[in-house]
């Protein structure tokens, strides 16, 4: 905690004034160009490795950089990821959505382990909020990954949303190699 408190104090003393100027500059007319969904892992610092500043992009973080399917939500159970997509795409007309994973992601490693029925059981989900989150919101991704495994990673994953008519093909082979160490 000392390091964090000292960092806050240093920021206030050395960097705050410049940041306030940046905030004032974009206060009335921010022009973000993208939305960046990434993992909450402490090693992920999106504004640093994208070299972006205040107002350049929206950033959404969660365990495993997951964007749950909208079918999982009812009015009172809405989560921030689909709300962020609505804010970004519909209200701000942002056309660039970046989903950025990383190597050795604990959430993705756990998701991969949930292929085993016992680990994904209701009993285990009740004792682990992360397992429950992954089972509820990433099971489709796990199923698609298993389909890729069966095809020996030759077929791309197809993503389609009912609001967007185009189908975009992505090959995530390199992400899966880095995440679970499969060739």
Automatic annotation (TrEMBL):
<dbReference type="InterPro" id="IPR001765">
    <property type="entry name" value="Carbonic_anhydrase"/>
</dbReference>
<protein>
    <recommendedName>
        <fullName>Carbonic anhydrase</fullName>
        <ecNumber>4.2.1.1</ecNumber>
    </recommendedName>
</protein>
<dbReference type="GO" id="GO:0004089">
    <property type="term" value="F:carbonate dehydratase activity"/>
</dbReference>
<keyword id="KW-0862">Zinc</keyword>
<feature type="binding site">
    <location>
        <position position="39"/>
    </location>
    <ligand>
        <name>Zn(2+)</name>
    </ligand>
</feature>
<dbReference type="InterPro" id="IPR036874">
    <property type="entry name" value="Carbonic_anhydrase_sf"/>
</dbReference>
<keyword id="KW-0479">Metal-binding</keyword>
<comment type="function">
    <text>Reversible hydration of carbon dioxide.</text>
</comment>
<feature type="binding site">
    <location>
        <position position="41"/>
    </location>
    <ligand>
        <name>Zn(2+)</name>
    </ligand>
</feature>
<comment type="similarity">
    <text>Belongs to the beta-class carbonic anhydrase family.</text>
</comment>
<dbReference type="GO" id="GO:0008270">
    <property type="term" value="F:zinc ion binding"/>
</dbReference>
<keyword id="KW-0456">Lyase</keyword>
<feature type="binding site">
    <location>
        <position position="102"/>
    </location>
    <ligand>
        <name>Zn(2+)</name>
    </ligand>
</feature>
<feature type="binding site">
    <location>
        <position position="105"/>
    </location>
    <ligand>
        <name>Zn(2+)</name>
    </ligand>
</feature>
<dbReference type="Pfam" id="PF00484">
    <property type="entry name" value="Pro_CA"/>
</dbReference>
């Amino acid at each position: 905690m000392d390091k964090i408190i000292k960092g806050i104090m240093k920021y206030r003393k050395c960097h705050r004034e410049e940041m306030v100027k940046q905030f004032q500059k974009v206060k009335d007319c921010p022009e973000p160009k993208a939305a960046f969904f990434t993992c909450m892992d402490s090693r992920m610092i999106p504004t640093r490795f994208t070299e972006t500043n205040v107002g350049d992009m929206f950033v959404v973080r969660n365990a495993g950089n997951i964007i749950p399917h909208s079918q999982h939500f009812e009015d009172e159970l809405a989560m921030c990821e689909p709300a962020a997509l609505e804010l970004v795409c519909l209200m701000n007309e942002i056309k660039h959505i970046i989903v950025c994973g990383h190597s050795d992601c604990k959430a993705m490693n756990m998701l991969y382990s949930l292929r085993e029925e016992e680990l994904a059981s209701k009993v285990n989900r009740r004792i682990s909020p992360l397992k429950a989150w992954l089972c509820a919101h990433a099971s489709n991704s796990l199923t698609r990954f298993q389909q890729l495994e069966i095809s020996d990673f030759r077929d791309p994953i197809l993503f389609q949303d009912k609001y967007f008519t185009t189908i975009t093909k992505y090959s995530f082979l390199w992400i899966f190699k880095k995440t679970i160490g499969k060739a």
